[in-house]
Amino acid sequence: MEVLLKKLYVRRMATDLGITRIYVSVMGTSFWLFFPQLVRNKADLRGLEEYRIVPQWLNDQVVQLI
Predict the structure, then answer these.
(1) What is the pTM of this model?
(2) What is the dihedral of CA 9, 11, 17, 23, to 10 degrees?
(3) Which residues form the domain of 11?
(4) Mean pLDDT across the stretch 44-61?
(5) Where are the transmembrane segments (predicted)?
(6) Is 62 helix (H, G, I), strand (E, B) or coil?
(7) 42 phi-psi bin (left φ>0, alpha ψ -120 to 50, beta other)
């Protein structure tokens, strides 16, 4: 029984490791390809500014309802 469980565990770990490697390579490639474009067009700064504006907008909407 122990041998069977160990074989299943090792097989599962190998599968998980393979999936993890694929995921890391896809994320690394997408970061390498798209992040410089986002920084150059200042999309990161615009996104952060929108996050700053959302609470103010929500506050205005609640005040209008009252």
Answers:
(1) 0.44
(2) -120
(3) 2-65
(4) 91
(5) 20-39
(6) helix
(7) left
- The number of C-alpha atoms within 13 Å of 35 and in the hemisphere containing its C-beta is 6
- List CB contacts of 44: < 8 A, sequence separation 6 or more: 38
How far apart are alpha carbons 36 and 43 in whole angstroms? Answer: 10
DSSP per-residue string spanning 8-50: HHHHHHHHHHHHHHHHHHHHHHHHHHHHHHHHHTTHHHHHHHH
- pLDDT for 25-48, tens place per residue? 999 898 888 888 888 888 889 989
Q: Do residues 6 and 12 lie in contact, with contact meaning Cβ atoms separated by under 8 Å?
A: no
Give how many domains the chain has, as a whole number. 1
